Amino acid sequence: MSVLKCRDLRKSYGDLQVLRGIDFEIEKGETKVIIGPSGSGKSTFLRLMGLLEPPTGGKIFFEGRDVYTSGLDLNIIRAKIGFVFQEPSLFRHLTALDNVKIGLKCVLKVNNDEATERAMEALKAVRMEEWANYYPAQLSGGQQQRVGIARALAMDPDVILFDEPTASLDIELTWEVIDVMRDLAKRGITMLVVTHEIAFAKEVADEISFMDGGKILESGPPDQLLRSPKTPRARRFLTRLLGGI
Amino acid sequence: MFLLDYSYLIVQGFEMTLVMTFLGLGGGLVLGVLSALGDVYGGRALRALIGAYVEFFRGSPLIVQLLLFYFSVPTVTGVRWDAFTAGTVTLMLNSGAYQKGYFKGAIEAVFKDQLLAAKSLGMTFWQTLRHVVLPQAFRVVIPSWTNEYVSLGLSTSALIVIGLRELTTVSKSIAAQTFKPLQVYLLTGLIYLIWISASLKALDHVYSRVRIPGLEVSAEAS
Amino acid sequence: MISAQDLIFLLQGVPTTLSISLISFAMGFIVGMPIAMIRQLSRSFELSTVLEGYDKVMRGVPVLVIMLFLHFGLAGLVPLFRDPFISAVVALGLRSGAFQSQIFRSAMNSVGRDQMMAAISLGMTRAQAFRHIIVPQAFIVALPGLGSEIALLIKDSSYSFVLGVLDLAKYSDILRAATRSFIYPYLLAALIYVAMTFPVANYLDRWGSKLKTKYGLR
Question: What is the distance in angstroms between the Cα of C169 and the nearest Cα belonging to chain B?
């Protein structure tokens, strides 16, 4: 069964239609990547799947259950869906360790000792254990983003959504984040990633989808989609992105 | 209605409140702009002097300032002066100290990169001040200036300590004469409230007409 | 001329001035913080209209008139207000509540939307996000504003002089009458006020900026 699935998902802001009917699903252990030009609705799509905004049409299913009509507690599901933001959104008044612990303590009601243990484990997974007692302002953008990943990871979620996690980083900081994400993908963490990092997508994605104009125009395994996209728009986008590789 | 008999006094008191507010604001405006300019462009001695002036008037209560000026000036100078003059001068000095902060923030917001641009056009210091810095500073300062209008307007009630017959002083004597303090002070509060709310609406309107998009700044902190 | 005796005489007014200011500040906090939270979280139209009205009155009426209203107007109905000290504290405290709610509200608004989003994405409720994420950061942002508010209360506590409270302003007036010296009592009192307000405002301003830099807050 799919972990997260949507059917005919739509979103408008006033007259502006941002998502025009998306069908998508991701299964346990899969890594799926979404690419597309800016303004194509990728980030909105991800926020809807993370239950951070309600859709204006269509349905979202978490482990087969319609999240908005089954009377489920949205916060419980949100805790099972990790989210990594484009801008490092660490809580600025908390150390790296406390950033990772706070969801465990507040939402999952884990006791302090166990929360510390699980948080340190998550920080180790992103190679940030030595920075546990630093505040966000003392960390580089790449380090902050890794702590953000640890914060999502520590909740032991069923899937983690990444919204262009390297888009706001300098090029040399991009790699440390991408490396961590590659590790997670190889460990079998279920991941849905919006990114422009084609090399990463090629290496770890089970499937890449191309989005434009609020729709998924085509999906396929990396080799196929990157080398021989079927739609002219995907072809144009990839030619520009890869600079004619 | 018993208060009708006193409406004449109340109107007179309110007029006095308005007069004192506008005199204080006007004088304070001149003092504020001058001391802001002195603080931004002046030498060390001038800046220290302005700093002491601002700290004194912003750091102590208006009530004590009023008493100080009302009583001390005739003693020191031998000049006779009444509550009206003492009150006006003190309000001007007090408001000038606050307005200096607002204008300084505004002038600094303008002058960083634009001074250089003005220089490159061959403008003199005074031309730059008159055509570039001040026109922008005045617009930028309006929101904080609104605060000063409200706070000075309400502070005029402190004039009661030197016996000037503004709205609060008048109300206190009416309350004592009629033995109806509850009604009198309710009415007084209402008059202040309507005046301030109407002024805020009007100033808001002015601000929306003269504001330049993208030109906003917060006043200098404390 | 001024003497040490005069100074000591004046200083007797300081404890009263400070207790009026600090008690009214505490009262303002107890009133202002919940108002800020309610206005931020509640969607009730009636409640926000009432709170807005409260805010308008406290900003549009001189605090002295509120003091006079409580002490002379309401004392007949509420015997508590026969005490001028209590009337002064309550008037200043009520107004401070309006001012502090504004300080906290704008501080909360300055904490970025991204912080709320991140908290929600972890599964926190809005109330949890406020308590653990928004409010602690807002406190830091609010520190300079709270410093100015305490300084304002120290100065405005002098309005209690009109009600006959024996505060620093009143002591300076007594000293003027006793010594028939027209300058030093008030000048000295003014300087004592400056010596109280200046460090408070400055310290909280610096502490606030230091913490803001440490946590990288705007």
Answer: 6
